[in-house]
Amino acid sequence: MQAADSERAGDGLTALFEAARAVRAQAHAPYSRFRVGAALRDDRGGVHAGCNVENAAYPVGTCAEAGAIAAMVASGGRRIAAILVCGDGVGLVTPCGACRQRIREFAGPDTPIHAAGPDGVARTFTLAELLPESFGPETLGE
Ligand code: THU
């Protein structure tokens, strides 16, 4: 089974959702009041979570995905097997453009990206679907 199929079948997806939902409650979002939680699984099976952290100097705020990725890197992880973003928006809450690129650094075209609302996963995309023809480390010959 491909990683994306395995995720869709539910292996570990509940754990990612619960991690994202829990960390979303910790979001510091006094300006937008839009709380976001993200949780990812690395290729060693570790789960890392992050929430958005806004700032009175608005552009300095950081997205939930950035926090989850930073936690993964700090723990020694370098590969995202799957990532889930949880928010309560009008329509889907998918990673913003900058976060798609942040995910790209540590993920491949088939990596599943789950978009969840407060009650569960609404849609699942691959990274290639959300960021086609992307620029990445390989472009630099890495
Ligand atoms: N936000 C995220 O944390 N992740 C995204 O991918 C979309 C946007 C946050 C940033 C800001 O704190 C709030 O949601 C409203 O844009």
Automatic annotation (TrEMBL):
Pfam families: dCMP_cyt_deam_1. Its cofactor is Zn(2+). Its EC number is 3.5.4.5. One of its GO terms (biological process) is pyrimidine-containing compound metabolic process. Keywords: Hydrolase, Metal-binding, Zinc. InterPro entries: APOBEC/CMP_deaminase_Zn-bd, CMP_dCMP_dom, Cyt/Deoxycyt_deaminase, Cyt_deam_tetra, Cytidine_deaminase-like. The keyword Ribosomal protein does not apply. Substrate binds at N52, V53, E54, N55, A56, A57, Y58. Residues 11-138 form the CMP/dCMP-type deaminase domain. It comes from the Bacteria. The active site is at E65. Zn(2+) binds at C63, C96, C99. One of its GO terms (molecular function) is identical protein binding. It catalyses: 2'-deoxycytidine + H2O + H(+) = 2'-deoxyuridine + NH4(+); cytidine + H2O + H(+) = uridine + NH4(+). One of its GO terms (cellular component) is cytosol. Belongs to the cytidine and deoxycytidylate deaminase family. This enzyme scavenges exogenous and endogenous cytidine and 2'-deoxycytidine for UMP synthesis. NCBIfam families: cyt_deam_tetra (TIGR01354), PRK05578.1 (NF004064). This is Cytidine deaminase. It comes from Methylobacterium mesophilicum SR1.6/6.
